[in-house]
Structures are given as structure tokens and as C-alpha cells.
Write a structure and sequence with these properties.
The complex is a heterodimer.
Chain A: H1 20-28, H2 31-52, E1 67-74, H3 76-100, H4 105-108, H5 114-118, E2 140-147, E3 153-159, H6 166-179, H7 181-186, H8 195-205, E4 216-219, H9 228-238, E5 241-243, E6 248-251, E7 254-259, E8 262-265, E9 268-271, H10 275-278, H11 294-299, E10 304-306, H12 312-315, H13 323-331, E11 338-339, E12 343-344, H14 348-356, E13 361-365, E14 374-376, H15 382-394, E15 399-403, E16 409-414, E17 417-426, E18 428-431, E19 435-437, E20 442-446, E21 460-467
Parallel strand pairs in A: 1-21, 3-11, 4-5, 4-9, 9-10
Antiparallel strand pairs in A: 2-3, 2-18, 6-7, 7-8, 12-15, 13-14, 13-15, 16-17, 17-20, 18-19, 20-21
Helix pairs in contact in A: 3-13
Chain B: H1 3-32, H2 47-56, H3 59-66, H4 71-80, H5 88-101, H6 108-122, H7 126-132, H8 134-155, H9 160-185, H10 195-211, H11 215-221, H12 228-236, H13 245-260, H14 266-279, H15 283-289, H16 291-314
Classes of the chains: A alpha+beta, B mainly alpha.
């Protein structure tokens, strides 16, 4: 795939219509003014950055995730398509989760291989035969999208466990509104500011039945966690308590917070702790982060966990190829958003093909995340490829492979000025009584020239994402 | 409010108050140690520094750690040592750590102010004392504490969190009113009578007043000379002195009344009784009955009150389950050796 797609410029190098206002601003603003604004952003983020670097100074300086001033702009019509696709996909994924932990119709029908689900490390037997309130398992979903050289959007992966990064979406918007307010005046840019409010409504709607005025809390592993800033930020924005495991206890299948006025019942927990650590009596027994008895309270329907335990089986990379099939099965609709074509190495034919084409493909571990444990064929040496080949052969079903997509680019400020850099997009989808996709999301950018890896752990930065309303 | 949050906030302000008072203790000790040997018979043995440690019950610890007690070792112990959980260094670190864990419950100005204090403190070493001068450093500690107090009063909403921070301040400050009195009052090596005794007494007690920024208050309240009884009265019983035991216990009672609402709480009863005890006491009666046992008693009651606050608000009331306290903050032992003022 040698085709390239730039978000801002068409093939002739002219700004696309939805970038015209920004392009005009860029051309009419002198270099020093832009420099100043970038500097201002850096300083402001650094000050907030002190809040990001909540880690003790002893553990070294927490890196700030670099912020780039050129926004990713999504035209209105394109967003309408994305929004419909995201809602459809998340809807199907929630139905899938309810099904595999219930009747397992999709497995009996052979539409998704039963062993792939039932023997999946992310499948939580403990979740079987209990009905999540409202049938929602993944209340907060982050769907990673990329646009390839052909100009089409593809879903790269689904994040249904504890997707993070939404605080950057909000902070980036705040920064852009401060740096270039005139652009918000001249265009109709969909606001994202109400995300915390929408999140709170979603969580309240998820409360166990019969609770009219539920108490919501955010459960964090603690201030040593790298996403602690986001946990604190969301709790503060929603006006709910930020609790650690030790602040909660369970009595008679009811969860209480230890407060200065005695035990106070908690009805909904937005947990930012992985399944494994939630409840030492059910999952990992050595966990100090969780709450003994929490899962029992959940099973008894006395508290709602968001997201529900066991959502990992829905976003596992080995299950990913079947999401379009889920959409057809549960919704009788054709998928609006495409999957990236994927070879499953547990299938013999796929394995043979992939082994023959390693230098052109991307190979991923099915449980991997964060850009680790993967092979990017075109960017690897012969030796690296051969080494990876041995790893695949040792356990083929642990891998999937995809063509190397040429991610779309967006102009980005680098040392030498503006240059195209590859980007992706993580919109956030909330599922309560209705499913809503926030108009925008987190755009990540690979700052190194030519790099396709946008993860912040691998030198990625972020951009504001503007969804135009007209 | 979560018990953990209340606990952390209480200790944020308590540690800041402790840092400030430790600076005041070092200040008064430095002043007293300036007396010439003719008037300070223990000067060669660093008696004033020893008394400072004694008021904190830290003589033995310091002796063991440094192999002896002199100005340098005591300064290190009280100001810089990361190993002493009550050193100014440790107090600022603990305050900032607790605030970091409770960023949601405080204002960003408060956190930034504590962060500034901590970053300044972290840069200090034994060499900075020589370079910057001890009194400048102590001034800075006091002014950092004042800054935090100001930012707290000026930005934090008057909810439970604010009240718990007030409790931390007043419990700690009340203890220091007693402890600082002890540092001066426990000089057992005074001449029995005569001009020398008057000189020493004036020097020591006025040094104490100055360290507490209470000299002017004293002068306004007492037209006569600086006397031990007068100073004790200003430090214990006067509500005009913002650092007196009476001011602190009265404030504790008020804050606890607010927190209790219309509930009858044991902790409120204790605070009320202690406040009345200091409010209606007379200094001449206290001295006639013995100052030392009176102070000892007040210290014990403060200690009990601190425990009652912890029990009432900061431990979870769940009988079916026991979990170890997450954090057992260090605190200096509240022991008191207010020695009789007779020559050894």
C-alpha cells in the first residue's frame, strides 16, 4: 500500500474544504506568534503537567505527553457516518457480551468459534448467568480508528476494559480554546466539554434497579498509578468520591464507603482497576487494590461495576475478526465501520500465508497492548523477522496478522516546521439507556518521521479533534 | 467525606503546623544559646539544645544517631533529617504527599503552594545553613507555613475538609504551646536569686515570646516586666494570643461542634471540657498547685482528644471486618518534663 492520505491537504496539496478556515489562520498568523502560542501551550501544560507528574519525584520525572497545535478536523458528514458506525459496533459488542455470558446463541450457531471464547483468558466464568443491569457490560468504550491510504476508516481495535485518555481529549480542547478562540467563533465545532456530565448520567443510569438517587464513586488503584491524574480529574469533574479499595468494604452483599459520618452505601462504581484486582476473594487473591466481597455484591445486583468484569473477551484481538459477524447476527445490519483484514494464525491457511509474507505484514499478540509484542514487518530487520517467526511457530494461535496500513497523516509542528505525521483516533462511546459517541476523541500522533506507532509509551503525542457541525 | 480523605487533610495541616513550630523551637533555642557562659552554666554541654530535644522526648534518639548532642546534631535532627519523621524536612514531605493523594479534595493553589515548599526544602542541605544563614531558613519555613495557611483560608470551601484541616492545626499548635513553655521552664540550672537570675530569666522568657511572635502581645497585656508567670499565662490562658492553649482548645471545640451538628459525641464532650478547663483557670492557682502537673494533665487530655478525633471520624465503623490502619502517622511522644525550678 503506497497510497497516502493527508487529513488537511488533498493530493494536489490544496487544503481540503473543512480545513480552509484553519489554513487561512495559519497563513495569516506570523511565525513568531505561532511560536509564542506553542510556547504558551507548553508552559500551561507544564503547569498542569505538575499535576500530571503526580508520581513522586523519587521515581523520576513523568514525561508530559506532547501536545500539537494543528487539530485533526472531521467534517460533519464524515462524523455522522463514524458516529453511526461506532454506536452500531458498541451496541453489538454489548449484545455479544450479554450472549456469551448468557445463552451463548452465537456460539451454538457457530458464528464465533466456541473454544475461542470459552477458553479465552479474558472469559470470566464468574460472569455467567447473571444479567448486567440494562444489558450493558461496556459502559465506557474507546474504539481505535485509523484512516488508511485509501481514505477509508478502519477499526484497529476495541477497548472495552478500562479505556483511558479521555482527560487528554478534554485538556486538549481547553488548551485550543485558550490559544485560538477566534477559530471557535468562526466555525461550528462540536463541544466535548459535557463528557463528564454524560459519563455521570451513564453511570447513574447503570444503578441497580430500584435505586432512584444512586451514589457513584470512581475506584482508582491509587496515586502511584500512571493514570491517576485522569481518575482524580474525572471524579472531580463529576463531583463524586475518588476511592481506593481500602476505602470500601462489603457487608451483606452491600458496598459501603468509610466516611466521616459512618458507612455510606455506594451503588455504582466506575472502576479503573483491572478485573484481576477487583476482588481478592474471587480473582487474584494477593490483590491489595480491590475490595473483598465486591464481586459477590455485584452478582447479588447490589452494586454496578462499570465496566462489568469480563468485557475483555469482547476486545481480545482473537475475537476482533468476528465483530462484523456479531453486527450481522445481533442487529441484522451490515457493519458501517470496517475491520482491518486480519489473518488468524490459529487457522492453517492463514498461518501459511503469513509466514510467507512476514516482511510486509504487522503481526500482533492477541493479548498484547500498548504497541508491545508486535512485529512491524516493513520496519524490521531480517534477523528480527526470523526471531519473530520462531515465536509464532511456538504458539501460532497467540497471534494475528494484518496488512501494514499506511495511516493517514496530519501536519504537525516538528523542529523543522510543519511536517506530515501519522495519526489515529480514539472516540469514546458511552452506553447507558442510549448509546452516544462523543463528537471528537483523542487523536494520537506518531512524532517520529515515518513512524506508525502512536502510543504515548512509544513517543506519541496528542492533538485536539474537531468535529464540525456544518 | 471518606475517612481516608479526612485523615490525610488533618495530617496535611498538622504537619505544616509542626514544621512551623519546630522552626520556632529552633529559633528560641538559638536565641537562648547565645547567652555567655557566665550566665549559661551548661553552655559547654549544649544545655539549651539538650532541653529542646528533651521537650520532644528525643534526647536518646539523637544521642544514638549522632553519638552526642550539640548544636549541629540537633539542627540536623530537627531540620534536615529524613530519618526523623518529625523533622521539618519530613513534615513538608509528608504534608505534600498527603495533599497529592487528596488533590481532589483541596484547591490547586493549595497543592501548588505545598509543592513549592517541598521543592524548596528538598534543595536544602547542611551547606545551605552556612550559606544562607539559619535564621533566613527558619524565616522561610515560617513564611511557607503562613503562605499555606493563607491559601487554605482564602481558597478552600468551608466544608468538612476545611474543618478537618483546622482540627489538625489546633491540636498540633496546642501541644506546642505546652512544649515550648517546657523548653524554657525546664532550665534547672538557674542561680537561686539575684541579678544574674533576673537577667537569664528575662533573656530566656523574652526569647520564647519573640520566637512565638508574641512579644508585642505580651507587652500589651502585661505592663510589668517579663516574668515566668506572665509568660505562662499568655501562652496558656490568654485568648488574645492566637497560639495559646486556650485559643487552640476553644477553636477545637468550635470546629468539633460544627462537625457534630446536632449529634452528641464523646469527642465533643472532651473538647468542651478541655476548653472550659483552660478558660476558667487562673495562673496564680495553677502555679500554687504546681505548673508541671497541670501541664502534664493538659498534654494527656490533648492526646486523648486527638485519639478521639481519629476514632470518631477517621476509622471505619465496621464491626464485621478488621483491616489494618493504612497509615499510622508518626508523631512526637507527648511527654513532658517540666522540671521544678530548683538548682540541681
Amino acid at each position: 500500500m503506497t497510497q497516502r492520505f493527508d487529513e488537511m491537504h488533498d493530493d494536489a496539496g490544496a487544503p481540503r474544504p473543512h480545513y480552509r478556515v484553519f489554513d487561512e489562520w495559519l497563513r495569516n498568523t506570523s511565525g513568531p506568534v505561532i511560536q509564542n502560542k506553542r510556547h504558551e501551550a507548553e508552559i500551561a501544560f507544564h503547569r498542569v503537567g505538575i499535576t500530571f507528574s503526580v508520581y513522586g519525584e523519587e521515581s523520576g520525572n513523568e514525561r508530559l505527553i506532547p501536545f500539537d497545535m494543528v487539530p485533526r478536523i472531521v467534517p460533519a458528514a464524515e462524523w455522522r457516518m463514524l458516529e453511526a458506525g461506532l454506536r452500531q459496533r458498541v451496541h453489538a459488542l454489548n449484545l455479544f457480551l450479554g450472549d456469551v455470558y448468557g445463552e451463548q446463541r452465537i456460539l451454538h450457531d457457530g458464528r464465533v468459534p466456541a473454544d475461542l471464547v470459552l477458553n479465552n483468558a479474558e472469559f470470566r466464568r464468574e460472569m455467567c448467568d447473571l444479567r448486567a443491569p440494562g444489558g450493558v457490560y461496556s459502559h465506557i468504550s474507546g474504539i481505535d480508528l485509523v484512516r488508511a491510504g485509501d481514505g477509508e476508516y478502519y477499526v484497529l481495535e476495541d477497548n472495552l476494559r478500562v479505556p483511558s485518555g479521555v482527560s487528554y481529549m478534554l485538556e486538549n480542547r481547553r488548551m485550543m480554546a485558550r490559544l485560538i478562540p477566534e477559530l471557535f467563533a468562526r466555525q461550528q465545532i462540536a463541544p466535548v466539554e459535557r463528557y463528564p456530565d454524560a459519563l455521570l448520567s451513564t453511570l447513574r443510569e447503570a444503578a441497580p434497579e430500584g435505586i432512584d438517587d444512586p451514589v457513584v464513586a470512581v475506584l482508582t488503584p491509587g496515586s502511584a498509578n500512571s493514570a491517576y491524574f485522569e481518575h482524580a480529574f474525572l471524579a472531580q469533574q463529576m463531583g463524586v468520591e475518588l476511592v481506593e479499595g481500602a476505602d470500601l468494604f462489603v457487608r451483606d452483599d452491600t458496598v459501603y464507603a468509610r466516611t466521616t459520618r459512618g458507612p455510606q452505601r455506594v451503588h455504582v462504581i466506575y472502576r479503573r482497576i483491572n478485573d484481576d484486582y477487583l476482588d481478592p476473594t474471587v480473582f487474584r487473591s494477593e490483590s491489595m487494590l480491590g475490595v473483598p466481597g465486591l464481586f459477590g455484591a455485584y452478582r447479588a445486583g447490589r452494586v454496578t461495576l462499570a465496566n462489568a468484569p469480563g468485557t475483555g473477551v469482547g476486545d481480545d484481538k482473537s475475537v476482533y475478526p468476528y465483530v462484523p459477524e456479531m453486527i450481522r447476527f445481533y442487529l441484522s445490519e451490515e457493519p458501517i465501520l470496517h475491520n482491518v483484514p486480519t489473518w488468524q494464525l490459529r487457522k492453517e491457511d492463514d498461518l501459511r500465508y503469513v509466514l510467507d509474507h512476514l516482511p510486509e505484514l504487522v503481526v500482533k499478540e492477541v493479548h498484547g497492548a500498548g504497541g508491545y509484542g508486535m512485529l512491524v514487518g516493513p520496519a524490521s530487520t531480517k534477523a528480527e523477522i526470523e526471531e519473530f517467526r520462531l515465536r509464532i511457530l511456538a504458539n501460532p494461535s497467540n497471534y494475528i496478522a494484518q496488512p501494514t496500513l499506511s495511516l493517514s497523516t496530519c501536519p504537525t509542528f516538528v523542529d523543522s516546521g510543519l511536517a506530515p505525521r501519522h495519526i489515529d483516533l480514539r472516540p469514546y462511546v458511552l452506553s447507558g439507556k442510549r448509546i452516544q459517541a462523543m463528537p471528537g476523541g483523542l487523536t494520537r500522533v506518531a512524532l517520529r518521521e515515518g513512524s506508525l506507532v502512536v502510543n504515548s509509551s512509544q513517543g506519541g503525542g496528542t492533538k485536539d479533534t474537531w468535529v464540525l457541525e456544518s | 467525606m471518606l475517612c481516608r480523605t479526612a485523615d490525610d487533610l488533618y495530617w496535611v495541616s498538622r504537619h505544616m503546623e509542626r514544621a512551623e513550630n519546630t522552626a520556632r523551637l529552633i529559633d528560641v533555642t538559638t536565641r537562648i544559646a547565645m547567652l555567655p557562659e557566665r550566665l549559661d552554666r551548661g553552655k559547654a554541654e549544649a544545655a539549651p539544645w539538650r532541653r529542646a530535644l528533651d521537650a520532644l522526648g528525643a534526647v536518646e534518639t539523637c544521642q544514638k544517631r549522632y553519638g552526642g548532642i550539640d548544636a549541629d546534631s540537633v539542627l540536623d535532627h530537627l531540620l534536615l533529617s529524613p530519618d526523623n519523621p518529625s523533622s521539618i524536612y519530613s513534615c513538608l514531605r509528608a504534608a505534600r504527599e498527603a495533599a497529592r493523594a487528596q488533590r481532589v479534595a483541596i484547591t490547586s493553589e493549595m497543592y501548588e503552594d505545598l509543592n513549592t515548599s517541598w521543592l524548596e526544602m528538598r534543595g536544602l542541605g547542611a551547606a545551605s545553613i552556612g550559606r544562607e544563614g539559619l535564621s533566613n531558613i527558619l524565616e522561610r519555613v515560617k513564611s511557607r507555613s503562613a503562605s499555606f495557611r493563607g491559601v487554605t483560608i482564602g481558597t478552600l470551601g468551608r466544608g468538612e475538609g476545611y474543618h478537618f484541616m483546622q482540627l489538625g492545626v489546633f491540636i498540633e499548635r496546642a501541644e506546642w504551646a505546652i512544649r515550648l513553655l517546657d523548653v524554657v521552664g525546664s532550665d534547672g540550672d538557674l542561680p537561686e536569686t539575684g541579678e544574674a537570675r533576673d537577667t537569664i530569666e528575662y533573656f530566656q522568657w523574652s526569647a520564647l515570646l519573640q520566637s512565638l511572635s508574641a512579644f508585642e502581645t505580651y507587652r500589651r497585656l502585661h505592663r510589668q516586666s517579663v516574668t515566668p508567670a506572665g509568660v505562662a499565662e499568655v501562652m496558656l490562658l490568654h485568648d488574645a494570643n492566637p497560639r495559646s492553649l486556650q485559643t487552640c482548645t476553644h477553636s477545637l471545640h468550635q470546629v468539633l461542634s460544627t462537625l457534630a451538628g446536632d449529634k452528641t459525641l464523646e469527642v465533643l464532650r472532651q473538647a468542651g471540657a478541655l476548653s472550659a478547663h483552660t478558660r476558667y483557670a487562673r495562673i496564680d492557682e495553677i502555679i500554687a498547685d504546681g505548673l508541671e502537673p497541670w501541664l502534664q494533665n493538659a498534654m494527656e487530655r490533648l492526646d486523648r482528644l486527638g485519639n478521639a478525633i481519629h476514632r470518631q471520624f477517621m476509622t471505619a465503623a465496621d464491626a464485621t471486618e478488621t483491616r489494618p490502619q493504612i497509615k499510622a502517622p508518626s508523631r512526637p511522644p507527648s511527654q513532658l518534663q517540666f522540671q521544678a525550678q530548683t538548682p540541681a
